[in-house]
Amino acid sequence: MPDAFPNLTSPVAAELTWLDDPSIAPQLVTLTAGALRLVIAPGIGGALAAFYESTPDGPMHWLRPASSAAFSERDPLRMASFPLFPYCNRIRDARFAFDGATVDLSGNDLRFAHALHGNAWRRPWQAAALTPSSVDLHFEHEPDSQIPGDWPFRYRARQRIELSGEALRITLSAQNLGERPMPFGMGHHPYYPRTPQTRVYAEVQAMWHADADVLPTHLGPHPAVDALREGLSPDAFELDNNFANWARGATIAWPDEHRQLTMTAEAPFDHMVIFAPADDAQLCVEPVTNTTDCFNAEGPHEHVGGCVLQPGEEIAATLTWTPKRS
What we know:
It is globular, with a radius of gyration of 19 Å. It has a single domain (17-325), classed as Distorted Sandwich (Beta-galactosidase, Chain A, domain 5). The chain contains three helices and 25 strands. The chain is mainly beta.
């Protein structure tokens, strides 16, 4: 993961200086609705660069804004959020068995020992159907046998992004364009401002415990499951874990700033990841359709997630982020 970001100790702590950079501005799409603003960088993995409210005192950030390094290094991991296709999180040793063959994804990114987050976040997306408050982003993958570890299935991914005066909505969809079945999962990877007072609320049934490589070992109870019901402090545990069978809703609250952001999801976003490393400013609460290493994992489908798209089959579901100030 990227180096820690400066902690956002107030809602206006991070100014968007890169918005005025003439080398960056042409890469961006900005949506507006009332006081809300959403800045998108289609060419950097179809990522969101900032989601904030314009106030007289400056931007009030609902997601952690992109750093300047995100643009100079073209790194979605330093953006506000980015899409996950055609699977979420890690695949052990970058290999899995499917349809009688071994799918080998090794070599697609030497930074990681295990395949990570699919391939759509590493590629540029195209923008279309732009209005002041909405845009379509799309990406089409054609397998290339000359690229080590390239995803061997052909598919199309889309993000329909809509901003209203009340909420941000992103409909993720994908279609299998190939002539054979394709294993599949999707999600989004949002980073949130993290302060000592930040709390995360969610209803979940159990947590996937993980090994040193952040790969799941077993599903079971954990104090974080109960803490989420009462309001989990990101500083309470060292977390990079999947939570199964959540209620498809989570609230990130900043009580000292009298504000909160509620994320809701449609099926099949039946899994949630919390990334909250100790002594770090990063905080992710991610809606996903599959647990880590789902293509290798053993267990009931409701605990593992993911699916198989048949040739021509399409899947779509919507995520919503609703800010509230009190």
